[in-house]
Amino acid sequence: MPQWYKNLTTALAAHGLLPRGAFHVGPEDGAPEGAGTILLTGNAGPGMWRAFGAARPGGAHALDAWSKTVLGDIARQFDASALFPSDGPPYLPFQRWAKKAEPLASSPLGILIHPDYGLWHGYRGALAFAETLPLPSRNDRASPCDGCTDRPCLSTCPVAAFGEGGYDVPACAAHLRTDAGADCMAQGCRARRACPVGQDYVYEPAQAEFHMAAFLNSRS
User: Fold this and answer.
1) How far is C-alpha 30 from the geometric centre of its chain's CA atoms?
2) Range of the domain at 181
């Protein structure tokens, strides 16, 4: 692993974050002008949530604010520019970058699935470097969904919000607003929890509830 990547891994770990792969920028990537290498940063499991909870800022977008503070400081330390999914419009193509940086695939739920983390991961930002830096080896693997015949993620939702036709967002949101949706609100999406991949990284209840509330608020 290149030394710059090791150093960033250590800096991110102090905040419960992980490097989520890196790639050399091409003209098709929609990256800011002058960027030569982009490193994705994010979380898997509850580590980030614990660090965020220890320094919890107030405000309506507390996690975004915390991410910008932490990654902004790290960017300055490593002579990089910090980029965020919430910046825009126009918005940066973080999901496309993620697939270029790591072995990810779209799951039946529409969430990107990781071979180790399953559905329990996210992206908090990216660091853009002007240099074309040496990259760590990429461990390409097949999507875990390819060998999953039972597909419990598609049969577990109480209101059948997930199916071959896509994600029925209104049905999901309506269910969460009822007493019957209390389990999903408190523990996280039941369909997501049904996936057998990455069970060691399942979010803690408080983290799951935070994200579910944010989703529901976005539907108001």
Assistant:
1) 19
2) 144-218
